[in-house]
Amino acid sequence: MAAVNHRGTTVREPAPWVEPPWRHVGHTLVHHGRGGAAGSCEWCQTVRVRDLAKLPKAHLHLHFTGSLRVSSLREMSAEHGMRLPAALTDGVALRVPADERGWFRFQRLYDSARHCVRSEADMRRLVDEAAADDAAEGSGRLEIQVDPTSYAPFVGGITPAVEIVLDEARAASAAHGLEVAVVVAASRMRHPLDARTLARLAARYAGDGPGEVVGFGLSNDERRGDTSEFAHAFRIARRAGLASVPHGGELLGPAHLQEVVGTLAPDRLGHGVRSVEDPALLASLVESGVTLEVCPASNVSLGVYERDDDVPLRTLVDAGAQVALGADDPLLFGSRLVQQYETARTVHGFTDAELADLARASVRGSRASAATKQRLLAGIDDWLSSPSHPAAG
Questions:
Q1: What is the SS3 assignment for 125?
Q2: What DSSP character marks residue 37?
Q3: Contact (Cβ atoms closer than 8 angstroms) between residue 145 and residue 183
Q4: CATH number assigned to the domain comprising residue 74
Q5: Which of 194, 227, 247, 315 is most enclosed, with most CB atoms within 10 A?
C-alpha cells in the first residue's frame, strides 16, 4: 500500500524483507550459504537481479579530492615530490572512531591527498576521471562538490579555480556521455565571510546544465562553526537559484540537524541519516521533500555506525524519505557509487524495483533540467523491464 503527501511524494508501507545470504566481517561481505561461496545456495540460484552498473542514476554527493583514483594520486604525488601516508594507497577502507580524534585522522589524510592537486592539469584530470568513473557506473548526472579555496593558490585565485572546474566539467560531459555540474561548498573550518564570498562567486555561474553551478554547500566537521553564521551565505546562493545542500546529520544527531534545517533551509542534506533518531524530525523531512544524500560507506568508515547493516537505509526509505545514494570520498572509503547500490541490495535486502526507486530519487533530487530528468527516468524504467539473471551469475 502507498499514500501520497501534499507534495506528491509517495510514502510506501515497508516491503517484506528477505535476508540475503551474506554476513559481514568488517567491510567484507561473506557468503554464508552451503559451501561458503556465492552460488552455492538456493537463494543465489532463484533470486534474479540486474546489472547495477547499467542502472541510470544521478550522483549527488561526491567531493572533489575525495573522488581521486589511487593510481592518479600516486602519480600526482610523484610528480610534485610529495610523500603520501600508506593509508591513502593501501586500498583498505578507512576506519576511524566517530569522535574528534577520528575526524582529525580523516582530515589529515584528506589534506595529504588535496596537497597533491597543485596545478590546472591536476584539476582537469581529476574532473575528467571522476566523470569517466561515474559514467562507467551508470551515472547520467554528476553534481561534484568543490571548495575552490584549497586549489586557488596554484591557479591564480578562487575565480580561476572555479572556472577551470566548470570548463573541464563541460569537456568531460561531452567526452563521457553524462552531465557534470558543480556544487560550490564552503567550509565550517573557515570564517563565514569566506562563505559569503564563495556564494557570490557561485551565483555568477548558476545554471542547471553541464559545467554550471547548481548548488551551494557547507562541509567539514559538523562540530565546528556556528551554523547560523552561514545563513547569510545561503541566502545569497538561494537568491541566485542555487540549491541549498549543506552537510548535516552524520556526525551529530537530531538537535544539530534541526538547526541546519531551520537555519539553512536545505533542498538536500549531505547525509541526514541521524534523523532516524527523532521520528518527528524525520517525518518533517519527508513532508518537506528534502532529499537525503546517504553515503553508507562513509557512515561506517567514520565510525557513525559499526557495520554496513547498522546504517538505517531501510528505515529512511520505509519512512518515505527521498534517498539518493552517494560515494562521498571513495579515495578514503574504498568504494564508488555502484557499490553503494550493491550494499543496498546485499546488506539491506533491496529488490531491483526498490533500487530503481533509489535511482529515481537521485534523479529527482538533482538540479538537472526537466528534459534530462525525463530521459534518465525513462532509462530507469527500461532497466527495470530488462532481463534479469540469477544473483549467482
A1: helix
A2: S
A3: yes
A4: 3.20.20.140
A5: 247
Boundaries of domain holding 247: 52-390
Catalytic residue among 137, 143, 179, 250: 250
**Is 250 an annotated catalytic residue?**
yes
Q: Using CA atoms, how far apart are residues 93 and 49, in angstroms rounded to an integer?
A: 27
Q: pTM for this one?
A: 0.89
Q: Does residue 30 belong to any structural domain of this protein?
A: no
User: Do residues 348 and 318 touch, judged by C-beta distance below 8 A?
Assistant: no
Cβ neighbours of residue 23 closer than 8 Å, sequence gap 6 or more: 29, 30, 32
Which one, of 202, 120, 128, lies nearest residue 159 by Cα? 202
- Indicate whether 82 belongs to any domain: yes
Number of other CB atoms surrounding residue 154 within 10 Å: 14
Which residues, other chains included, contact 14 with Cβ-Cβ below 8 Å and sequence gap of 6+? 314, 318
What is d(CA 315, CA 267) in angstroms, rounded to the nearest whole number?
Answer: 21
Q: Which residue has the cell 547499467?
A: 54
What count of Cα atoms within 13 Å lies in the side-chain half-sphere of residue 138? 26
Q: Is residue 6 part of a domain?
A: no
Distance CA 10, CA 318 (A): 11
Contact 300, 42 (CB under 8 A): no
Block means of pLDDT (10 residues each) for the chain, length 393 residues?
46 44 43 44 70 99 98 97 93 88 90 97 99 99 98 98 99 99 97 98 98 97 89 98 97 95 98 98 98 97 95 98 98 96 97 98 99 99 94 65
Sequence-ordered strand ranges (E) for the chain: 2-4, 10-12, 22-25, 28-31, 48-49, 57-63, 139-146, 179-187, 213-219, 243-248, 268-271, 291-294, 322-325, 389-390
Domain membership flag for residue 14: no
Q: Report the C-alpha gap between 317 and 187 in whole angstroms.
A: 29
22-25 and 28-31 strand pairing: antiparallel
Q: How many domains in the chain? A: 1
Closest by Cα among 391, 308, 302 to 38: 391
Q: What angle do CA 76, 328, 308 make, to 5 degrees?
A: 125
